[in-house]
Amino acid sequence: MIAILLSILVFLQDPGLDRDQQQLFHIVDKFDSEDFSSRPFVKVSTGSWIQRGNLPKQNTFRFGFLLSEGASRFQVRFLDCETTSFERTVHGTPDFERVTYDRVDLRTYARDIARRLAASRDDPDAWDYYMSPAEVFAPDAFCVLVARACWRRDLVAECHAIWSHMDPSKASEQLGRAFANVLCVEFSDPHLSRTQLVSRHELWLELFPSHGYSDLVRATIAQLESALAQDVNSVTTPRSQNTDESMHALVSSLRDEFHAVRGNTDSVTLPTTAKASGACASAKILKAGFAVVPALIRALDDETPSRTVSYSSRWGGGLSVKSVGDLASELLCELSGLELLGQEAWIKWWQSVSTKGERATLLALVEAENPYRALDASKRLLARWPDSVEEVIHAVSTTGDGANRAMLVGLLAETKTARVTQFLREELEQGHELRARVLAAEELLARGVRDGTGRLKAAWSEERQASDCRSELAKFLLISGDLEAVRLVTKAAQEQRGVARETMIAKLKSATLDQVLTHASATERTAIEHEIERALIQLLEDRTVERGCLSGFDWRDQSVSWWEPRTCDYVSCALGSLWPERFDFDPSAPSGHRDRARLIMKNVWRKSCGLTPLAVQAPLTKVSHHNIVHACEMTSDFGPLGGELLERRRRIERQRLDADAVVGLLVAASKSLPDGKGDVLLTMERAGDSTGIYMAWRLSKPDDSAWGIEVTIISNGAVDSPSVGGAVESCFDDASHFVDVRRALSKALAAPANQSFEVRLHLRRR
Fold first, then answer.
1. Span 598-650, pLDDT tens digits
2. Greatest CA separation found in the chain?
3. Is 762 helix (H, G, I), strand (E, B) or coil?
4. pTM for the whole thing?
5. Are 593 and 687 in contact (CB under 8 A)?
6. 602 CB contacts (<8 Å, ≥6 apart)?
7. Is 425:449 a contact under the CB 8 Å cutoff?
8. Which of 101, 359, 535, 582 could bond to 42 as cystine, CB 3.0-4.6 Å?
């Protein structure tokens, strides 16, 4: 306490600080009383990587003061008041996964922060912030922390430089919100008692009495004090022999639960250093089963906070502490296999099932037509009563729901017994649902039983299957290790676009050869490999574009992200994944470079077949500036191009390109369309390798689609789709309507030389 008072006194007496600075520094000192300014300032490589679009994976970095270090570990107090220990990674770890620190200059860092803050006043995108557990301080609040660190190290000029761009009222509001989030995170710290949590919340109220979060903090204090009273009662009250009372006490102990009860697609549970064990409340409740249900239902409105903290990335990001009632609801869902809302609904359910018992209730859900309820109930039934396999098998034979049947077959297959193997054979031979039969065949194949291939080859000739069933069948035939089965799929894939082609490409685009040929015999392995390679080479001709589609998937050691991908790009990925030593492909390259790689792939295959190679454009040479146009191609379905278009093309070739030149050429192309009808298509790309910009324009005849324009600019992994002003087609003849397009083009052209971008534009006049 004395240290805090002295720190405040120093700030209040320092004439270099104005009133707002004194107040904000005082607030931070209250939460973070220790002075680490004499410690080395470091940049920590956290090992938590991110990837934007097709850009390389990047490590994430945090800044703070080095507290201690040993042979393999080090501890840092970050600027946002969090203390974290790290284990250094070994030599040779990829840069994006490295965990280490580097000493840096606080003065230089602070100047960069000041520039960033200044830039964000005119352009909010200059400081890209989204609240997360690792970044609870919004920009202005974070700048208070940096300015305070500078002041403590006598970096007065840097402190004031940051402050000159700061809005004190905004910074105060953000500080209150940030420290409220810190309080939330602290619930997951087992080293903090409930009494300490109350003190921290009371401190927050003292510092932010009129903040928008103050009512919420007051309510949390009241709930914590109620939990403290329960703690006292649980110690002073003798353990009851009454089952109902003991179950109530067990549910009440959820106030000490640190861990997630069940997965949630909308949020994630924050990690905690508290050890998970079978002794925790949720584990005991799940073990107790239906005996604890009445106590759980009574606890649904219990707002006592637990120690489980969750984060949701929706609506800007948010943290919350789960209440005992929240956990009780999740546990009821786990025990029942249902998703009900409200105490009344759970009471009605319990009244209907309490006389049946847990096993009978779960079995009834297994036999229901709802596939998701059946799956959850089956999992719990088999986990609690392993001898219930026969009951689940019977449920499969009686269900008429295809999805339910397939899910139950997959669940049963996890039990590796002779009885289940027999059931899988029966399902394959006698089952009426193709998805379930395919799944049974896959599980049998994994056990070395090849009975399914012959039966499912016959099923392929039937055209009655739904597309999703046929897709699953195609996947199985491809990896069956049977040459005839593989040829059924490759033949259909080459004949026309459809399920076979889409499934084959989706299955192979990230696969390895060993994965595809796992079940192939030594005698057929080579023939199957050649058949798949031949089919993929033929599919390189398919340049169909998935309009309006953003595709992302893992490929080798990277993540691939494409806007409006082409089929041939997926096929190229498949070739590069199956035979990386023969087919070189970079999915992050612009489409023009990918096209060149596609031709080279064809020639690799043609050479192996003794065929004449195709002509391939020579590699591009580097230009003096990364925005110089090295080529501008123009084609037209309407005959020779007009003089103005040719003149505009002449002006930009071998010259540095700007947004005005692109818009001017676009307007000229629009005006040149005969009778004002037709399409203008533009592809423009820069590879980030100093070879300049490639442009391709095409004027084509109109089709049945409506008039309009789509513009997509992909730069630095981000997709921008600027709009064009005007409500009539004639706006395409006026460059003043392309303000947003010009802005987006200028931003892409201003990107560093090593960054690639791609522009796709489709203008339609009718």
1. 999 999 999 999 999 988 877 778 888 999 998 888 889 898 887 888 888 88
2. 98
3. strand
4. 0.67
5. yes
6. 537, 540, 614
7. yes
8. 101
